[in-house]
Design a protein that fits this description.
Dihydrodipicolinate Reductase, domain 2; 3 domains; 428 residues; Rossmann fold; 6-stranded parallel sheet; 17 strands; alpha/beta; 11-stranded mixed sheet; 14 helices; single chain; binds NADP nicotinamide-adenine-dinucleotide phosphate; Alpha-Beta Plaits
């Protein structure tokens, strides 16, 4: 029999449990695909006494990660702890002791991925992180391999299942943010502390990884403009629907040649856009490559089994390489260091919803201020409200964000304006 390939795992939570389940239940099929059995040699957890959904031999568990990192028989180490430290230190030491790495850790990869990838490449080791973006959706390997011939100019992704679930429910059921968030928490789709998801930080890490790979230029997550979900009111969703749009939170990257534009925020998408019908906890990533044209990847963006599928896919690929003695073929693919433009240099269309006194010439005065700042109007809809005010909704032509912000600043101080309710970027 061919010698087994030993695997060590750090973390046995949602993803660790899913990966162990897939490895165990599909052991025979995986052995055929690799040409050698894969054996889980050790799993490090924080608390040995914690009750777990997954049944594992207690002898495999340790609360000392060093027992996994320093074991010379382990060839592949899976880091499934999360966060930057101590995960980053553990992974670095594992590379230095000659282990190939699999991780699903988006925060670590977004903040420190290029150094870790280089470290692994210099030692001729494999390092894969398919599970870090899009859960079970294959996107990192396709970008680095099957689609590597393309020059990508645009990526657009719904990469956070929690916010997509909340927005889908608010849209379909005319529901309030707070009620849907509580329901999402009850279903396990949102964490008890949902800040990372609803403020857009989770999407920020994933978008940094995607943009870095698609544009072969390192994108620091700190340079990505981020706006979360909390600004979106039920009324914006209703009005967007009436105008033929849906509101989604997307990660967007554009390669403008000398610079990149990378951002995460809510957008109005036309109802016919391929991402507009991606609902609930599903994720999708839409790309435009110069040779392939438009491509879209769709599937379950989180969860133990979907992410476990991606993690085990990486393990299988690495194990095959070990069998052939062909590891370390693909390191960091960020060859450039293009600047990221600040958000006020963005040029796009905007939706603006404001309340103003319902009097003659109000519309004309507001339109004239937009005009003063080179913001031209594509459409405007006015609706009288019972209290003597009017709700006015504008869709602008493409304009510079700095100009729109200046116009809104002047408008917000007018006596005739009760308040700017919201403004949202439109992705046509
Ligand atoms: N959840 C998802 O759907 C999903 C999807 C894609 C990617 N990811 C990524 O996958 C990674 C894991 O996420 P998760 O949801 O599986 O997290 P989780 O459920 O909180 O599990 C984390 C695991 O790591 C263990 N752990 C934490 N600190 C440790 C330490 N210092 N030493 C040893 N073990 C330690 C915990 O041990 P105990 O069990 O003893 O507490 C637990 O088993 C993260 O990077 C996350 O971003 C998650």
């Amino acid at each position: 029999m061919t010698n087994p390939i030993n695997i060590g795992i750090l973390g046995l939570g949602v993803v660790g449990g899913g990966a162990v389940r897939v490895l165990t239940e599909h052991a025979a099929a995986i052995e055929r695909k690799v040409g050698a059995p894969l054996v889980i040699k050790k799993i490090a957890v924080r608390d040995l006494n914690k009750p777990r959904d997954i049944a594992v031999d207690p002898a495999l568990l340790t609360d000392d990660p060093n027992e996994v990192i320093a074991d010379p028989d382990i060839r592949i180490l899976c880091e499934l702890i999360g966060g930057v430290e101590p995960a980053h230190g553990y992974v670095l030491r594992a590379i230095q002791s000659g282990k190939n790495i699999v991780t699903a850790n988006k925060e670590m990869m977004a903040k420190a991925g290029n150094d870790l990838l280089q470290e692994a490449e210099e030692r001729g080791l494999d390092f894969s992180f398919e599970g870090s973006v899009g859960g079970g959706i294959p996107i990192i390997q396709p970008l680095k391999q099957a689609l590597a011939a393309n020059k990508f100019t645009q990526i657009l992704g719904i990469v956070n299942g929690t916010t997509n679930y909340i927005l889908s429910k608010m849209t379909a059921e005319d529901a309030d943010f707070g009620d849907v968030l509580r329901e999402a928490q009850a279903h396990g789709y949102a964490e008890a502390d949902p800040t990372n998801d609803i403020e857009g930080y989770d999407a920020q890490y994933k978008t940094a990884i995607l943009a870095s790979i698609a544009f072969t230029s390192r994108v620091d997550p700190a340079d990505i403009y981020v706006e979360g979900l909390t600004r979106i009111a039920k009324r914006d969703i209703e009005v967007a629907k009436e105008l033929g749009y849906v509101i989604k939170i997307v990660g967007i990257g554009q390669d403008l040649g000398d610079a990149l534009q990378v951002r995460v925020h809510p957008v109005l998408l036309p109802q016919a856009h391929p991402l507009a019908s991606v609902n609930d906890v599903y994720n999708a990533i839409f790309l435009h490559g110069d040779a392939v044209g438009d491509v879209m990847f769709y599937g379950r963006g989180a969860g133990g089994l979907p992410t476990g599928s991606a993690v085990v896919g990486d393990i299988i690929e690495i194990a095959r390489n070990i069998r052939r003695g062909a590891t370390g073929r693909l390191g960091c693919t960020c060859y450039d260091q293009k600047p990221i433009l600040p958000i006020d240099q963005l040029e796009t269309n905007y939706y603006v919803r404001l309340l103003a006194h319902d009097r003659p010439k109000v519309l004309a005065s507001l339109a004239s201020i937009f005009g003063d700042f080179d913001v031209s109007i594509e459409s405007v809809v006015q609706r009288a409200l019972p209290d003597g005010d009017a709700e006015i909704v504008w869709i602008t032509h493409r304009c510079l964000e700095a100009n729109l912000r200046s116009a809104l600043d002047v408008i917000s101080r007018l006596e005739i304006v009760t308040g700017i309710q919201n403004w949202i970027r439109v992705e046509e």
